[in-house]
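Anyone up for a design puzzle?
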């Protein structure tokens, strides 16, 4: 084929590195943002954190979009209301006005050694694990070396709830033949283990766990203990299903005796080892603080969550007196981009948060039952932003309020039609369901159909299946499991 040249005109969208970074920072949580900034600080010598209280610092203020371009030396002031310049804390016109969020988990480094000493005082002592607790008890027993080794073997086989999930035969088969361990020896070791604290540890089934606790705590000859033992041994499933007719027939007990046995069983712990489980605490750093100022709810940024960045002045002055600057000039531009993108990120979070607060002011006044339905498109149209931007802003960003700390996405939800032609939020309906069930007569609990009828009388049309879905989302058991004797 004869080679030819052809000209073709086309258009395509290309994201600049600055725009890509802006989108990336917007979707990060506060913790992830600080991790990303730490990585960039290591790679870029022209970028540095502002030391709090340093003279001549040129930190960027994120207090409001209008002031975002101007450097300031002091931390950002809370957003004033539209009527004046008075800060939030100077306007206690409402019981909520003097509410102040507690950010005791955050700290600022001012170079004082006293702060380091105070920080050390908050280090919690490490809680011993279940195995450590049992081995400590085993050290004070008078067992011989072989029996002690077998009990240690069983302790290592326990799960986090304190149950022995393998049979003694399976454990014996796993041991080397030269050890000559018989299941009977393991049974004796298990007997020693089951007499340790917490009571019920070493059980193989929930029934055995509860029986161990009944035998250790109560007099076996008392009538209530006899009935409780019978239920735990043979009718635990019927008790879980609240099948009281079946329990009456099986035990021959009247309602009063059956109620006393039920209370005894409910006082036991079916997971004795759970108290020693190592639970990792996860902390949330709120991005926005909501307070009531002169009768209006206002959102302001949490200064402790905002990184304070600046360009290294020494390097910037050196580059200003040189031509080109090599790779440092590119890093200087990247540093300026990052500072601008971080500022834009917080500006966008504040704008979206204030728009949410204005639409959900009834929630802040009256709680979940007053939550109004809202979708991302409403905020996007109000702020002239894309829905994807609103989605990024509201994901893993948190708002601390007098009613608690919530993810921004919490305030969005589907709607359910009402008889008057309006709409009710799914969050508000779940709150109503929770209220109705919380106030119900436990001897005649409300069914899903009855709850649907009650809401219908209030003008909220909700199908029974929807009620069941919302109830399950609230971890509320069905009507037969809520019924009391």
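Challenge accepted. My sequence:
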């Amino acid at each position: 084929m004869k080679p030819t040249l052809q000209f073709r005109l086309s258009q395509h969208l290309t994201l600049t590195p600055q725009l890509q970074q802006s989108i990336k920072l917007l979707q990060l949580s506060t913790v992830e943002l600080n991790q990303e900034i730490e990585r960039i600080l290591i790679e870029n010598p022209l970028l540095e954190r502002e030391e709090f209280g340093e003279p001549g610092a040129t930190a960027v203020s994120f207090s409001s979009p209008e002031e975002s371009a101007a450097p300031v030396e002091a931390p950002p002031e809370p957003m004033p209301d539209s009527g004046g310049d008075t800060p939030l804390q100077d306007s206690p016109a409402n019981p909520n006005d003097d509410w102040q969020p507690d950010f005791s988990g955050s700290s600022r480094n001012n170079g004082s050694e006293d702060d380091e000493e105070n920080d050390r005082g908050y280090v919690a002592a490490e809680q011993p694990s279940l195995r450590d607790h049992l081995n400590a008890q085993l050290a004070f027993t008078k067992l011989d070396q072989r029996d002690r080794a077998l009990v240690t073997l069983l302790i290592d086989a326990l799960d986090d709830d304190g149950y022995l999930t393998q049979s003694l035969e399976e454990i014996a088969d796993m041991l080397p033949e030269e050890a000559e361990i018989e299941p009977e020896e393991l049974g004796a070791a298990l007997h020693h283990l089951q007499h340790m604290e917490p009571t019920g540890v070493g059980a193989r089934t929930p029934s055995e766990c509860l029986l161990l606790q009944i035998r250790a705590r109560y007099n076996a000859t008392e009538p209530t203990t006899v009935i409780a033992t019978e239920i735990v041994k043979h009718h635990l499933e019927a008790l879980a299903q609240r099948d009281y007719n079946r329990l009456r027939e099986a035990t021959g007990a009247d309602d009063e005796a059956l109620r006393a046995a039920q209370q005894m069983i409910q006082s036991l712990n079916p997971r004795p080892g759970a108290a020693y489980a190592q639970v990792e605490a996860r902390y949330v750093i709120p991005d926005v603080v909501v307070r009531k100022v002169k009768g209006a709810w206002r959102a302001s940024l949490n200064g402790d969550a905002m990184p304070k960045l600046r360009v290294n002045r020494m390097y910037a002055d050196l580059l200003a007196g040189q031509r080109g600057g090599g790779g440092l000039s590119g890093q200087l531009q990247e540093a300026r981009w990052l500072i601008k993108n971080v500022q834009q990120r917080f500006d966008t979070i504040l704008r979206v948060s204030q728009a949410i607060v204005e639409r959900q002011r009834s929630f802040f006044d009256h709680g979940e039952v007053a939550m109004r339905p809202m979708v991302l498109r409403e905020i996007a149209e109000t702020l002239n932003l894309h829905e994807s931007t609103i989605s990024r802003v509201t994901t893993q960003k948190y708002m601390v309020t007098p009613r608690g700390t919530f993810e921004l996405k919490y305030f969005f939800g589907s709607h359910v039609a009402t008889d008057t032609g309006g709409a009710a939020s799914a969050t508000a309906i779940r709150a109503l369901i929770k209220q109705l069930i919380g106030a119900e007569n436990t001897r005649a609990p409300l069914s899903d159909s009855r709850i649907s009828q009650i809401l219908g009388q209030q003008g909220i049309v909700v199908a029974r299946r929807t009620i069941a879905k919302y109830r399950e989302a609230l971890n509320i058991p069905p009507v037969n499991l809520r019924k009391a004797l």
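A detail worth pointing out: The CA atoms of residues 472 and 478 lie 8 Å apart.
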